[in-house]
Amino acid sequence: MLRICCVCLGNICRSPVAEALLRQKFIEAGYTEGVDFVVDSAGTGDWHLGHPPDRRSQEVCARYHLDISAQRARKFTAADGEKYDRIYGMDRNNVDDICAIIDAKYHAKVQLFDVHEVNDPYYGILDGFEIMYQQLEQAAGKIVLQHHKD
Ligand code: 4NP
Which tens digit of pLDDT belongs to each residue from 14-32? Predict the structure, then answer.
């Protein structure tokens, strides 16, 4: 079973969407959650613990029939380094923060979700969430395709 954790700063904008898209695409590819894979998300910061995703992330997902309203923000912990096989940061700051939290022996599990950084849309332009969604959607598709070959 492949265990994946998607990580951003707040766990309310980017990583809940990344988590939901990976889940959707693994299921579409015929994999069973809890048997073939598990996917989760977390934030390196603790401002939004227990909060649902940002309204703008919920809206962009709803536009594509993806319901992320039940997601609640949690903090990424040192124990997650052992628990997951792959830990995806959205940007390089996330990768650095993840590596500061987990033991160095797990650093090889950490990579960017996409070849390009997924920028934080929190304080950004109005269509930043749509751009974020499109980038995450493409990148999630590549991750699932890569898994077929593994
Ligand atoms: P996220 O976006 O890391 O994609 O969840 C952010 C949400 C909140 C904050 C920063 C980034 N914040 O500073 O509160």
Answer: 999 999 999 999 999 999 9
Question: CATH no. for residue 91?
Answer: 3.40.50.2300
Q: Which tens digit of pLDDT belongs to each residue from 89-114? A: 999 999 999 999 999 999 999 999 99
Of 57, 97, 96, nearest to 73 by C-alpha is 57
Question: What domain range includes position 101?
Answer: 2-149
Locate the ligand 1 atom nearest the alpha carbon of residue 15 and give its number: 4
Q: Is 8 a catalytic residue?
A: yes
Ligand 1 centroid to residue 53 C-alpha, Å: 10
CB-ligand 1 contact for 74 (6 Å cutoff)? no
- Domains of the chain: total: 1
The predicted model scores a pTM of 0.96
Q: Where does residue 74 rank: exposed (0-12), middle (13-18), buried (19+ CB within 10 A)?
A: middle
